[in-house]
Queue: 2 jobs
Job 1
Amino acid sequence: MSEQADLKRRANLEREDLITFLNAAKVCTGQSEFYGDSRGQAVSVDFLHDYVMTNYRQLYARTVAADINDFNTARVVTNLLRFPHPDLAQRRAEGELIAAALHTMPPQRSYRVLARLREHGICNRRTKKIVRDYLETRPDPKFHALKYRHQIKQLVRHFHLRTPGDTGKFLFHGHRAKSYDTELFETFRRAHYNANAIYELPYTVAEGLATRTGVDRQKFLEKIAPKLTHRERVRLQQSGAGIRGVELDDLGMIDLTRLAFYLLSRPPAERREKAEQYESALVRSAARAARRTPLQLGHVHVVLDNSYSTTGTRETHNRPLALAVAAYYLLQQCTEKFRVHWVTPVSNPLLAVPRGHTNLATPILQALAEKPDMVLVLSDGRDNDPPGGAAQVVHAFRQRLDPERRTPLFHLNPTFDASSYGTEGIHADMPMLGIRRAEEIPTMLAFARFVDGSADLEELEDYLHTRAQQFVANAKEAVA
Amino acid sequence: MKHQELDIDLKGLEAGQPQAWRAIRIVPLLRDNPIVDLRLDQRCYDNELAWIQLPDRTAYTSWIPHAFVAQWTPDDKPVPALGTQMATKPKHVDHIFFREDKKVARREAKRQMRFLPLHTSLEGYLALHFSGPPEWNFDYTRDARRYGLSPRSEVAFPAHWLPGLEDAVRRFEIQDGQVGALYFVADALAAAFVVPHPDDYRQLHRSVLLDFFGELLHQYGCAYHSLGEVIGELDHDRIHSLEDVASELERVRQDWRELLKLMASGLSTRTSHAQRVYKMGRHTLYRFLPEFKPGAENHIGEVILAQGGETAFLKTLRLSEAQTKRGYLLSSLANADWDLDRCAAEFGQSVTQLITRLYNAGFEDLVEPHAKR
C-alpha cells in the first residue's frame, strides 16, 4: 500500500517537474524581465534543461512538439545532439524529432543552432546526416545559400558537405568569382559593381551591400520596398517611425500578438487618431486566430494586468502589456459572453499604458462576483495591494466558497522568474500556465488539465507522445 | 537663527500598500488634494564638489549632485511653468573642479527658490553649537575656544551604494495620486520623501538615488537580503460570501496601514530644534533636528509646511548612532553652559568619564587632556 502511495507521489512529482519545464520553456527567452536580469535567466534555464534532460530523456525530446518557444527548442536540439542517447531506437526517434524541430523553426534560428554545434566540437556521422538532410530539404536552396551564406558556409566547412552546382563556388568565393550560371548568384555578383542590381536581391542581403556602397538609406528603402517580406515591413515600421515607401498595406494580416506589440509601439497621438483603423485590424487579426483554434468558451471574465511592471525591460519593452491587449481582442472573438477587468482602468485597450500599482485582488473579486463560467488572470503574478492579496483571495474562494471547483480559475503568466526556475504562480489553487502569444490561449486551456492535477502523469506522457507523432508527421508532410 | 517648536508628522497624507524588493520596502504616501500653488523641480549638477558660502561667513562643502527648485504663487492659483533653469559655472582651482554657490536655500527669481535637499538640514546639524566653548573656560583647547568646532565633518553613504535600492526604486510601481514615499531598509525607517503634487513625484521618484544615507542603514542594506513575511492572512472562519472576502481584504489593508504607522513612528515627533529657512507665500521651509535620544531613531530633515500645518514637502535622513551621540553630547554640554562638572553631574558620571566619551565620539581636539579629574 505504502509502495503504491510512493509510486503515486513520484508520478505526481514527475508531472510537476515536466509542467514546470514546459511552462518555463514557453516563456523564457534569456532576455531580462522586469523582475530579473538576463544573467540569472541564463543560469536558471540552463539548469532546467540539464535537470529535465538527465531525468526524463524521452519526454525532454518530445517537448519540442509541445509549443515551446524557439529559444528553448534550439536548446533542446543542441542538447540532444551534444549528449546522444546510447540506445539506437531512442536515437532514431530523437533524430526524427530534431529534423522536425529544425524544419519548424525559422531558418535563421535553425542555421544558428547547427552552426553552433561547431563550437561544441560535434562532428559525427549522425549529426552530419541531420545537417545534410536539413540543407537538402530546403524548398529553395539557392536562395538560402544567398540569404544565410555565412552560416551555410560554416556548416559546409565543418561537416565536409558536398554542394550541388556552383553553390560551393558561391559560398567560398562570393562576388570575386568570374561569373555564375545561377541567376541569383550572378545578381549578387553584379550588385557589387552595379548599383541597380542591389534591388533585385532579398532585403537582408541588399541592406548590407547598400550600406557598404554608401547608398542613401531613405532612397534604398523606397526602392527595395517591393522586395520586403511582410515581417520585414512590420519590423522596419517599428524601428524607424514612418519610413516613406514602406507603409503597411494590411495590418489585419499580421499575427495578433505581433500586431498588438506593433500598435503599442506607435505614439499615443497616432493611436488615438487612427483608433478605428487599428481596432478593426486587431479585430480581424483576432478573428483569424480564433478561426484557427475553434474553441468556444462560455461566460468568461478576464483580469488583465496593465500595471507599471508590464513595461517589461529595454529588451522586452511593453511585451506583457501587448499580450494583455492581444488577449482582450482574442477572447472577445472566442467567447459567448466576455468581460474584462483591467488592473488600472482604461477606456480603450488600444490606448493602454503601463501605469500604476498592481491591485489584482479587487478585480479578481469583481470577476468572481458575476459568477462566470471561467476566470482568467493575465499577470506577472506579483501584486502589492495588499501584498500577496490575490493569492489570499484565490485561496479563500477555493477553500470556503467553491471547494467543488465549479468555477475554473486560470493564471496566464508571460514572464519568467529566474529565482523560482519557472513562471511565478499566484497560488497553488490557481493553475498557472506560461504564455508566449495570445493566440495560444485556447490551446493552453486544453493543456490546463495537466497543470491542475486532474490528469495524471500517464495522460501527460500520452499527450506528449501524440503531439510528438503529429509534429513529426506534419514536418515530413511539409518536406514531401 | 531662532529655534522653534514644530510637529513633524505626515498630516494630510495617507500610507498606501508597501512594495518590497530584497531588503528594501517602499511605502507610497497618498494625498487626496494635491497642492498646486507650490511645485518642485529637480536640478542636477555635474559630478563635482560644491562649495557653499553661508551668510555667517562659514562654508559648507560636500558632493551635492542635485538641488530642488521650488516655485510658488502668492494666491492659491496653480504654478504656471516649471523647469526654469539657472546654471552656475564650475570653477577650476588647482586641478579640483568645484562649484561655488551661496546659501543652502537661495532666492533665484521672483517666487522661485532653490534649496539643497538634505544638505540644508545636514548643514544645520553640523552647525549645532558650532561656535564652541566660551573663551574663559580653560578646560577646552585653545583652538576650540578661538575657532569653535571648525572644521566639523560627517560621513554619509551615497544612496546608490545601498545594495538593492536602485533596483527597488526602478521596480517600484508609482500609484496614481502618490506624492511621497517612506523608505525602509530591513524594515528600519531610512527616509521619508514627500512633494506637493503627484506629477512632481513622478518626476522626482528617482531623485532619492542622488541622496545619501547614514552608515547604519548602509550596513543594514549589506547585511540583509530579504524581508520576512509580515501579515496578510485572511481569516477563513469569517468568510461566508464574496463580500466577506472583500471586507477581510480591507482589514488586511488596514492592518498594513497600522503596522506601517508603527514602523514609521520614529519619524513623527515634536521637535524644538526647528529653524525657519525660507518663507514662500503661504508655505514655509523649515529644517529640523531631533531631540538626540541615544538608542532611538533620530531623523534630521527639511519640511515645507502650509499655513494649516499640512506637509507640502518633507525629506529626512536617519542619523547613525555615532552621529546621534555627537549631537547628544554637544547639546548636553551646551545646555550645561559648557561646564564639564555640571554636565558630568547631570550624566551621573565623573568628568574623566565624560571626557573619554567626548574623545570616543570624535571630539579629540575639543577638551584639554589636563581637564581630566
Job 2
Amino acid sequence: MRAMVYRGPYKVRVEEKDLPKVEHPNDAIVRVSTGAICGSDLHLYHGMMPDTRVGMTFGHEFVGVVEEVGASVERLKAGDRVMVPFNVYCGSCYFCARGLYSNCHNVNPNATAVGGIYGYSHTCGGYDGGQAEFVRVPFADVGPGLIPDWMDEEDAVLLTDALPTGYFGAQLGDIVATPWWCSAPAQWGCSRLSPHG
Amino acid sequence: MVVFGAGPVGLFAAKSAWLMGAGRVIVVDHLEYRLEKARSFAHAETFNFVEYNDIVVHLKKETDYLGADVVIDAVGAEADGNFLQHVTSSKFKLQGGSPVALNWAIDSVRKGGTVSVVGAYGPFFSAVKFGDAMNKGLTLRMNQCPVKRQWPRLFEHIRNGYLKPSDIVTHRIPLEHIAEGYHIFSAKLDNIIKPLVVAGQS
C-alpha cells in the first residue's frame, strides 16, 4: 500500500509499505478514505518529538471503511464506515473506566507519562497512523464509532481530534453562562457593571 | 474568555465557548488570515499580538485591568513570540517546548481564573511561569482530549446546525502529494488552516 513515511526532520515522502495485518483478535484493518494533517503532526515533522523513528507513518485523524476484523470483534464488520478517535485506548483499565481515554494505562510502554496515539512516535506507543491507504486499529470494539448516515465525511474526520479537542478546551474552562444583561456592559467596555466581571 | 491560537483547535474552542454561554470571546494569533477566520467562523474579537508591544497588557486593558475569566492555550509547544524561548526549545532542545502561549495565558487570566491547556506539549520539561500561576490562585486544567466522550453532544450540535466543522477546511491534498502538504502547512503558505488528506486520487 501507499503510505506517508517519516525520513527525518522536514523530510517525509510517500512509499510502498506492507499492508497492515490483524495482529490481535480485537484488531480491525481500516481502508482510509479521508485523513488529515494535524498541527501537532508538525511537531513530529520538525523533529521536536522524542523517539520519532524513521519509517513511521503519521496521521491520527482519519475515517474510512472497515476492510477486515479480527475474530473477537463484535461491534464492527467489514464494510462499516467508521471514524477513529486519535486516542488508542483499551477501554477497561483504571483510567479508561473513569473516562480518561487519553490516559489509558495499557497501550503504551511509556503509559505513566502519555497514552497511545496513532502515528505519533514511539513516545506515544509507536502505532502507525492514518496517512496511508490502510491502518491497523487495535481495540476495534472500543475506539471506532460508526459514521451516521447524515454526517459528511469531512465533518467526521474533524470529529476525530480537532473539534473535540477545541470543545474540550472550552469545557475545561468551566465557562459560567452569562445572561445578556451581564455580558452587554462588558462589550461596551465597562465590565465592572456586570455581576460576572 | 481568551483563546490563544487561531488554528483549527483554537477556532473550534472559540466557537464552542459561545455554545457554553460565554459573554465575550477573544482570539489571539499573529496570522491575519486566521484571525479573519476567527471573526467570520467563530464570531470572536481578535487581536494580532504582533501589533501590540505587550499583548498581555493589552488584554488586561480590554478586560478592565482584571484579566479574562478563562484563557485557553490552543497553541502548544512551538509557539512564536519569544526569541529566547524559541532558541532554547527548537534550536538547542534545552526544554521540551516554547511555552510562550501558556505563559501569556497565565499572565492574562484574572486572579482566581482558569487556564485550560489543549495545545500539545512534549514529555520534556518547559519553562512555565509556575510561580505566577500559584500566586494568582489559578486553576490549571489540561489533558489530551478523550475524544469519544465528546461525541454525543457534538453529534447533536452538528445535526442541529450549530457547528459545521468542515467550514475550516482549506486544502484537500492527495496522499501521493502529502510531502507538499506538510511543507505548505508547516510554512503556513497559501492561507492554510486545515489540510485534509484524500485517498485514491493520485
